[in-house]
Amino acid sequence: MEIIKVENVNYSYKTKYQTVHAVKNVSCSFEKGLIYAIVGESGSGKSTLLSLLAGLDVADDGCITVEGKDLSKINRDHYRRDTASVVYQSFQLFPLLTAKENVMYPMEMKKIKRKEAAKKAEELLISVGLTEKIFRQFPLMMSGGEQQRVAIARALSAGGKILLADEPTGNLDTENEQHIVELLKKLAHEKGYTVIVITHNPEVAKEADATYRMRDGCLTAESKTGEAYD
Known about the structure:
The chain is of the alpha/beta class. Helix content is about 35%, strand content about 30%. It is built from seven helices and ten strands. The strands form two sheets. The chain has a six-stranded mixed β-sheet, sandwiched between helices. A four-stranded antiparallel β-sheet has the order 2-1-4-5, covered by helices on one side. Strand 4 (about 60-65) and strand 5 form a beta hairpin. Helix 3 (about 100-110) crosses helix 4 (about 115-125) and helix 4 packs across helix 5. The chain starts with a strand and ends in an 8-residue tail after the last strand. The relative contact order is 0.19.
């Protein structure tokens, strides 16, 4: 089932010296229950495209629809709160909150009772492969892999079924990288999430169900062998 549809989207931004056409006439779609990789060199436009999918920026022209709704015409703060969550390379956990409190935070913002949020947070932390000893630890007490799992659990706590991940394994060693990739695949294939991963790592990209490549703001789809297809 098609969840996100991108049609002829363009986006530019201005620097001190020039206007950068970061996304050029991009069209693509993303379905429920699949994991996608968007690959490309630094500056190719892939992170900008992710920001557009997250509603952090609005396209200059063209259209992005999510479950049939035009993203430019809905409350994008509510969209990120209720429908789509973003996971970053740098984890972006709240340093003065424990793992459990970090995961509780989106639920408390939605006025879910603290006792209920605490129980759900524990369930989510366990579901991403963490143990009870992590619940009361602060981010600096955790390994990179543990922090990224907490970040994913926090993203899931919002309740949406779209997960956008910007270089989620970029700060991890090979073993933790594989654990995170397997977790993202499980979320897509077993839990029905639409997972979109920005990555420069070919080992991560090859685990995806489909791969898009960004180059100079343009997007092409690739088969598993790397051959372009329509």
